[in-house]
Amino acid sequence: MSKSGHGIHRDLAWALKQQAQRAGEQAPSVRGADWRLATVTAVGGGTVTADGIVCRCLASYAAPAVGDVAVISQSGSGNWIALNRLAGSGTPLYTPVYRYKPADTPRANATLADDPDLTCLLDANAVYRIEFTLHYAAIDLVSGSPAGRFRTQWTVPAGASGFRSAVGPDQGQVLSGTSSGGQGRWGVHQFGTACTYGDRNDNTLLCFAQEEATVFTTTAGTLALQWAQAVTNATSTVLGQGSTLRVTRIG
C-alpha cells in the first residue's frame, strides 16, 4: 500500500476517534453526572429554564427569579435539576441574620440614638421581616414625677416604608418587683414614632418588649433600634445583654 494510503487510514482513524470523543462528551451515560453555573431566563411551576435547559428545582431553591445565577446539575440518565441560586452581594433570601447584645448598655439621657449592637445593613429594593426582642430595665418615678423610663424608635434606610408594632408594658405602667403582670401596649406605629414603655421601677429588674415590622426598601442603608430614656435621669436605663435583632430578607 502506498504511503498516501496509510496516511488516509490514519486520518480516518483520527477522525473517528474525535467523533467518538465528542459523542461521549455529549452523552450523559458516557460522561456521567456533572454540574455547571447557568443564568435563569424563565421560571415555571417548580422549574427554571437556565441557559436554554429546563431544570426541576429542589425544594430548597425557594422563589427562583429570572436573572439568578443557579447551580444546575445533570444526572447520568440526562435529567437536569436546579440546586439553588448563588449568593449575591446582598442578603440571601429566607436566611435569618441575627444581632445580639453581648453586654448591657446603660444610658442616662433622653436623646434617642442607635443601639451599638442591634443594627444591620439592608439592601435596596428588598423586603425584610424585622424582629427586635428587648430586655430592658428603668426607673419610673422620683418624688411622684416621671423619671427614666424606656423609649424607642427605629432607624431605617431612606425611603423605606412599612409600620412597626410595639408590644410590652404600657407607658407609665409600674410593675411590682414580684409580678410581671400589668397593663400592656399593642400599638402599630411609624418607624420614627417614639414609643415609651412601662417598667418595674428598678434598673436591675428586667422587663420585656418586642417590636416587629415588614420593611420595604428602595435604597440600601442602616436598620437600627434607637432608644433612650423618656425623661432624663441620672439613674441609667439599661438595654440588657441577650436582647436580639433578627433580620430575614423575604423579597
Sheet with the most strands? 8 strands, antiparallel
The global form is rod-shaped
Architecture (CATH level 2) name of the largest domain: Sandwich
**Uncertain runs:** none
Question: How many strands appear in the DSSP assignment?
Answer: 19
* Count of alpha/pi helices: 2
Average pLDDT confidence is 88
Strand content: over 45%
CATH class of the largest domain: Mainly Beta
Helices and strands, in order, run as: HHEEEEEEEEEEEEEEEEEEE
Helix and strand content put the structural class at: mainly beta
Predict the CATH topology of the largest domain: Jelly Rolls
What structural keywords apply?
251 residues; mainly beta; Jelly Rolls; 2 domains; 5-stranded mixed barrel; 19 strands; 47% strand
Give a written overview of the molecule.
This protein is mainly beta. The protein folds into two domains: 83 residues, OB fold (Dihydrolipoamide Acetyltransferase, E2P) (Beta Barrel); 153 residues, Jelly Rolls. It contains two helices and 19 strands. Strands 6, 7, 9, 13, 14, 16, 18 and 19 form an eight-stranded antiparallel beta sheet that branches. A five-stranded mixed barrel has the order 1-2-3-5-4. The longest helix is centred in the N-terminal third of the chain and has 24 residues. The mean pLDDT is 88.
